[in-house]
Amino acid sequence: MSRVIIINIIRFFVLVFLQVFLLKNITLYNLSTPYLYILFILLLPFEIPNVLLFLLAFILGLTVDAFYNTPGLHAAACVLLALVRVLFISITVQKDGFDNEPEPTLSLMGFRWFFTYAVILTLFHHFFLFNLEVFRLSEIQYTLTRVVLSTAFTLFLMLMSGLLFYRRKERK
Amino acid sequence: MRNLLIFITKYNAFFLFVIFEISALVIYVKYNSFQKATFINSTNNVTSALYTRISELNSYLSLKEVNDNLVRENAALRNQLKTSFYIDTITKRAVIDTTYKQQYQFISAKVIANSVNLRNNYITINMGSNAGITKGMGVISNDGVVGKVLFVSPHYSVVQSLLHKETVISAMLADTKDQGSFKWVDNLDPHTGLLADVSNSAKPRLGEWVVTSDASLFPAGVRIGTISNLHSTKGDGLFLNVDVKLSVDFSKLQYVYVIYNKFAIEQTGLEAQEKKDE
Fold it and tell me: Given CB atoms, is A72 within the 8 Å cutoff of chain B?
């Protein structure tokens, strides 16, 4: 239990640092910007109570906002992400079959499930984030291109980090 | 009542979502429409301290470029010194010239955080109200216009970059003085902008300088960029739109100057009065 908490706290700080000091400066062709920090919400354990999940998403969003000078923008997108996560997990995963607090990682859930999970959640987050930031229907075509390409970039980084910390299945 | 409680606990995710989403949006809208200085930005203690550390590390990587820039600027300033002119009158006397009164003063500051790839970009600098900076002052670098000050804390300020959805600067063509308004358009290219609403009788040419006009908050004639395309596809309206290649490379910005206009209060006071009379 305490191990899970410590791992998540470390993950929170590492991801925020990575996002704010490294990935903030990266764009490909003015189109593709990665937002890897949402991996923190994706990897929270299955059994987490909803209150805590939404609260953590909100705090994570505000932390990133403080560095991006956009208070509320990332927080709103992260809270939406948390809702999509709850819905997705309640549809695809059977709740009772778990012991010792598993997390939805690549190594535990397999490639197919994790990939779908990451694609859908990232798309929702990026779509909401970019549109709320631009807030103009006249630029919608350009914004959608950015959403799709940024999702691809973020996904690439997510899968990379998933493979980096890949462990053989330890399911009993 | 009991049924209501059961209903709420059953769908608690949705209600939690509504609560948090609304609070996030309230923060977002408030910050944007009233431009209130909240503590959730890069002028607060934690974020600014972290940004300062990282920028110290980063600044070593660009020392060479900063030095080159300083040398170039020094040479330009040295050219204007009295000692570098050949004096061809024989008598020499000192004259205290009272026809000129200094209007603009420049406060130098270092960029500690910057972004170029968002729809709305902000720059954080390491000078604040203690150095005399207030909201709304113009910011330039030695290459040209950078933006205007949005928030101030005692030691830091946030600058709304030229690369921002809401930045509009009154600009003109350097040679013919035709006025227009400069903005950053939707393709998120940190090297180009748009000079819109130039009168149709104007004859701009490729490579001509676009500079700030007298009606802007900058001194007249500060460079913005050069014209790179005479018939821009962006922008709308019946007037002439031209693409502008920005003279400032925002991704390499290290040092900036904040412009203190000594007559700003007098001018804005007068203009406010005019509005009241209407």
Answer: yes
Q: Is residue B116 assigned to a domain? A: no
Using a CB-CB distance cutoff of 8 angstroms, which residues of chain A are in contact with residue B22? none
Residues 90-129 of A with CB under 8 A from B: none
Q: Is residue B253 part of a domain?
A: no
**pLDDT digit string, tens, across residues B144-177:** 899 989 888 888 888 988 888 888 888 888 888 8
Q: Where are the domains of chain A?
A: 2-164
The crossing angle, in degrees rounded to 10, of helices B12-33 and B2-10 is: 70
Within-domain flag for B70: no
Find the CATH number of the domain harbouring B178: 2.40.10.350
User: What residues have CB less than 8 Å from A4, skipping those under 6 apart?
Assistant: A45, A101, A103
Distance of residue A134 Cα from the nearest chain B Cα, in angstroms: 6
In the stretch 64-93 of chain B, residues with CB closer than 8 A to chain A read: none
Q: Does B115 fall in a domain? A: no
DSSP characters over B85-105: SPP-SS--------S----EE
Q: Which residues from A are below 8 Å from B50, CB to CB?
A: 20
Q: What range defines the domain where residue B213 resides? A: 168-248
Please give the ipTM for the structure prediction. 0.75
For residue B123, report the phi and psi dihedrals to the nearest 5 degrees. Answer: -125, 135
* pTM across the whole model: 0.73
- Does A65 touch chain B if contact means CB atoms closer than 8 Å? yes
